[in-house]
């Protein structure tokens, strides 16, 4: 392993460690990095030289979650972990008050840099509503616009399917870990997005299922990624 590869792996481990402290907001970590002029690796190292206020934060780091993320990534070449400092990290997310420190992605990560429009709506949608969502998504996709949605039933699913029928692709932002499909009925859609020119993304770690507070956090990512 050369020095550059070692640095990249160390940077990835550090950002994952900070993100694994799930009772500490990303905003708090970013403020600590800026205020104390420390690197993520220095923070995650929890050395004796750290200020006491920072040590209290580092105690929240979860090694099992970090290990789970690496194990998940090693399961396929189609899986990626994008850190806050990576050139692949969407700049639009940095406008958030508390942006995710890591994004776990499966599929074509290049879509994250593309212009996006979000299509979201009711889970209990009408047939006409789903058809309209699918038609709009197809039209956007045919004109070079990525359609971003939340992998939910109803309008979200129709939007993803319409976009996949076009030529540009779709992004599904999940409210679960990267391998936890919710709702389970959308497993085929999830596989199609991952393998047919789309990408699924999440800030949650492998093994984490759906929780009510996950979905507002997911929605802020959809909003930040999209132009409208």
Could you walk me through the main structural features you see in this protein, from its secondary elements to its overall organization?
- About 45% of the residues lie in helices and about 10% in strands.
- The chain contains 9 helices and 6 strands.
- The protein is α/β, with parallel strands linked by helices and about 230 residues long.
- The protein has a 6-stranded mixed beta sheet with strand order 1-2-6-5-4-3.
- It has helices at about 5-20, 25-35, 40-45, 50-60, 65-75, 125-140, 155-165, 185-195, 215-225, and strands at about 80-85, 100-105, 115-120, 145-150, 170-175, 200.
- Residues about 1-10 have low confidence and may be disordered.
The pLDDT mean sits at 92
Question: Strands of the largest sheet, in order across it?
Answer: 1-2-6-5-4-3
**How many extended strands?**
6
Query: Helicity, in percent?
Result: 40-55%
The low-confidence runs, each spanning 5 or more residues with pLDDT under 50, are 1-8
- The helix/strand class is alpha/beta
Could you say which overall geometry the principal axes of the C-alpha atoms support?
A: elongated
Count helical runs: 9
Question: How much strand content do the residues show?
Answer: 5-15%
Over the alpha carbons, how many angstroms does the gyration radius reach?
18 Å
**Largest sheet: number of strands, sense, barrel closure:** 6 strands, mixed
Q: What sequence of helices (H) and strands (E) makes up the elements?
A: HHHHHEEEHEHEHEH
Distance between the termini: 43 Å
Multimerization state: single chain
